[in-house]
Specification:
This protein has helices spanning about 15-45, 50-65, 65-80, 85-120, 130-145, and strands at about 145, 150. β1 and β2 form a beta hairpin. It has a single domain (about 15-140), classed as Rhodopsin 7-helix transmembrane proteins (Rhopdopsin 7-helix transmembrane proteins), CATH 1.20.1070.10. The model has no long low-confidence stretch (mean pLDDT about 75). The longest helix has about 35 residues, at about 85-120. The chain contains five helices and two strands, in the order αααααββ. α1 (about 15-45) runs antiparallel to α2, α1 (about 15-45) packs antiparallel against α3 and α2 packs antiparallel against α4.
Length: about 150
């Protein structure tokens, strides 16, 4: 079927488009404001600069990366299925969504292991402010080995 000639894609009702776009805009605003507040709180307050909170900041940055995915999904909802850009946005959204899901799950895994160590060995686990320089090498591998097409073989 040629895209320029005849396209018989089903068109969703206008009220459904409105509901979907409202949910997308609400999700975008909630994600952007909430995750930005976490980053600002840790940046402004020196007592919050601990290793577990840097993990939470890294998790919130990973969640902030979902905002462009939600925006592209909202844009693709307003377009017809016949447009080439809609197909590209759909493909891009699905690839990036899977990668970001893996990044967020790895963050949650590291945070849960950190909490487990805190509970199991409370006296050995020291909660003191740390330098950002010592935290970044530990967080970087969580983001590193993923591409839009899956895990990079190491």
């Amino acid at each position: 079927m040629d895209i320029k000639t005849n396209c018989e894609a089903p068109v969703p009702p206008l009220h459904l488009k409105g509901i979907f776009l409202t949910l997308c805009v609400t999700g975008i605003l909630t994600a952007a404001v909430g995750n930005t507040l976490i980053c600002v709180a840790v940046y402004k307050k020196g007592a919050l600069r601990t290793s577990p909170n840097y993990l939470l900041v890294s998790l919130s940055l990973a969640s902030l990366m979902y905002v462009p995915v939600l925006i592209s999904y909202a844009i693709s909802l307003t377009m017809s299925e016949c447009h080439l850009t809609t197909k590209l946005l759909c493909k891009w959204t699905s690839h990036v969504d899977i990668v970001l899901f893996c990044v967020v799950m790895l963050h949650l895994l590291v945070i849960s292991l950190d909490r487990l160590l805190t509970i199991k060995m409370p006296m050995r686990y020291v909660m003191k402010p740390v330098l950002q320089v010592s935290t970044y090498p530990g967080i970087t591998p969580i983001y590193g080995p993923y591409t839009p097409y899956g895990r990079v073989p190491l």
